[in-house]
Amino acid sequence: MKHLTKRRLAFVVAAAMGIAGCADDGKDGADGAPGEPGPGPNPPVTESADITHITMISHAIEEGQVRYEFEVTNEDGVLVNGLGKAEAKFAEKTDRGVVLNRDGNVGGYTDSTKEGSSLTAIGDGHYEFIAAMPAVTAASEGIVWLRVGGDSETEIARSQPMVVDKPEMIHTSTTETCYSCHVDYGTSSMKHPSYTAINVEGEVDFVAGCLVCHNNVSRAEENGGYATNTLQKIGHVNHQKFEKDFEVANCYTCHAEPVINTSIAGNGCSDCHSTDAASGIVMAMNDFDAREFHASLSGIGLVERQADRNDHSTVLSDIYTTDSGVTYCTDLSLYQGESMLDIETLYNDGTLSYAGGYMHGYNNKSIIGRETNSYEASFKGDGTKTMCYAASSFGINVPQIMASSRVTFAHGDDPSYDGVTFTSYSPVFAIADGEVTDYDRRHAVTTDSCSTCHNNETNYHKNGGYSEGGYDCVACHNNGQDRNSAGSAPGFGPMVHSMHWGVGSELLKTDEDGNPIPNSATELNADNCVSCHADGIDLYAIPNQYMRAKAFHGGDNTKMASPITANCYACHDSASALNHMEQNGGEIDAEVVADWYLQPTMESCSTCHAEGKSFGIDKFHVFER
Length: 625
Known about the structure:
alpha+beta, six-stranded mixed β-sheet
């Protein structure tokens, strides 16, 4: 049962076409003299590789062995001779799941130095490796794994592991779901990143690469697998209390494919449930998808919250005035699909816990604070809620204004946190002439940046929805409101950076002795900015205007900060880092002036640190997957 890859097939087809295609295209040239090479250059070869690449030609699962045929090149694409070592693993698919047994009873692992195995050069850079595995039969199927190089007798580096082949649906989590947080495990400082595997196309195959050792059956069991910790246990137990607003029962976060267990006592369930307790809940069936079951468990509320999130939306009307600028009003509407709902009725019957909004100042695509929090409310009888703000109470008095709204569906003990919130932003209204333009704000994170980890569909608090990359949070955490969120930083960007990797991350949780516990994001690579900034960052696009900055100082001492410095200092908060920023025009403690939002800063960070520059942030942070 030999398996040819596309690359091998293409070679065979090309050879056949070459033989058949020369009939009328010209006569053969003269043969080379005896002992001399024929026409055409020989490919270059070497005996060293700083980076070793494998190109699979074929593999076959046979009685008592796995046979590999492959080509080896170095970092320059040059064929490599003199390979001294190859390693093979085969985790077999059984009725208990994938198993690679250390006793040799199921599957197998070996290298070219072991008895019965052999590594043979059959051409320049071209090798055959016969991996002796007594328990393997021609009918076996499972994860076929290969790694070459790394022996002390040659100058050929150890290659990245390769998953040569695997059965369909051998695992239900994916590289993409794992890498939404881990991004590039192979460059991390976590446990054995060098075992991060690729497939024959050179793409990362993270889950299969882990599963080949961390099998479905623990080593501790009779005829168990290779490692004591199964991959299910690593996934389930290690992520039980991953982060605030992470719901472990939302299995869809990791399991992109249906999770079908034909036995409740089987793989995975016992990591979280005792066998007796699990079997008392439900009897497994062939079409039983554990993801749906967990999402619908009573008390979690995922299904209800997801339904609210998916089915509803809110809209704020243009701002208008009916009394020559004494008040400014906007109408709030709530929709289910395309049907407008009655906000007053839903509020009175307890479906909604809040429906209100704020009036903001606006300048240069930025919310620069609240003009006022107070408003007169009324209902028109068509389902909308009208909010009118007295101009006499405005505190910023900027030329343009706009409104934000918050509608919260009541869930849980505290709807401000457990509910589902929708935030809308009205178009922008120019006070001088009544001109209306669309609300716009630069938002450099992707839609699922927050909800990948914060997956329980709740709010951080109040209108802090995790959907749409935290776009709703800007209504409060904007450039003009000097927040002090867990001592973190002002504005949306600095706050998020600090909450995950800066001082704010240490103030959210404490241990039994009251010592701060950094949140789970600090366990991941902080340099992996692509988790949120999938489209990169353009420092030149950041508006050159101050933001209010009480949070950098504590107490009520309100200052101003320049925007790039505020974002960078949220993580890079050493004295030397701040000194570097200040020497290049950055500020976190500028004195406040009346028209602060119109004042340009002097920071010149983009000159050296914009993407593509010699010291661009992309040289030190990961912006590509």
